[in-house]
Amino acid sequence: MGIERISTGSEFEAKVGYCRAVVAGGFVHVAGTVGQGDDVVSQCRSALDVIGTALEKAGASFVDVVRVTYMLPDRHEFEPCWPLLREAFGDNPPAATMIECNLIDPKFRIEIEVTALAPQA
Question: Could you tell me how many helices (H) and strands (E) the chain has, helices first?
Fold first, then answer.
């Protein structure tokens, strides 16, 4: 069983030394992902789009996600994201954790990290 690394081409992947996702050990591990936008909802939507693309490149989707971690600098901003999260995960909700913490830049309002089952070869 090998390791597949998935890049989005972000300049930070090269600068920091990470991949957007790594497929290994039967799982797709998607790195913590922040989104673009002026508020938490638009950033959440953007982050989910990036995560969805990474999962797709790995042959998976949100249906395959088994674990998700949400990180926000202000826990009060989490509830406005709930409709987007319900839409993304639908009838297949993963185990989830929400952590209130500082992010790498104050402009970021949410970071999302997921682990999904990898497709069987």
Answer: 3, 6
Judge contact between 55 and 90, C-beta under 8 A: no
Which amino acid is located at 1 in the chain? M
- Average pLDDT across the chain, whole number: 95
Beta-bridge partner residues of 72? 100
Q: CA 34, CA 93: separation in Å to the nearest integer?
A: 20
Mean pLDDT of 88-98: 96
Eight-class DSSP state of 107? T
CA distance 3 to 23: 6
Pairing state between β 111-117 and 4-6: unpaired
